[in-house]
Design brief:
This protein is about 20% helix and about 45% strand. It is built from 2 helices and 5 strands; from the N terminus they run H-E-E-E-H-E-E. The two termini are about 25 Å apart.
Length: about 90
């Protein structure tokens, strides 16, 4: 997926670490964004039978921690990919 996006001229970074800051102390807690496109859009990749609320919450947490507004949750365990795409917005 990252290859296809980069091939189309988009800036894509994989496994981007997210740190948490608490009272000027930076904590590395091991959160990683699957794909970050153009430093604006988070893409979280899954291959699960059913997308659970915790998956949406995970993406929303990443958006809040990274101070970004838009993300997509992509589940590849579906017959038609159009059924596996969920758009999540942070404060839109």
């Amino acid at each position: 997926m990252a290859f296809e996006l980069a091939k189309r001229g988009l800036d894509v970074r994989r496994q981007v670490p997210i740190a948490i800051e608490y009272e000027s102390v930076k904590l590395d807690v091991g959160y990683r964004i699957d794909l970050l496109v153009g430093e604006l859009v988070v893409i979280e990749l899954k291959a699960v039978d059913v997308v659970q609320p915790i998956h949406r919450a995970q993406l929303l947490s990443y958006l809040k921690l990274a101070k970004l507004r838009l993300g997509y949750l992509l589940n590849f365990n579906v017959v038609h990919m159009r059924d596996g795409i969920k758009r999540i917005a942070n404060n839109l």
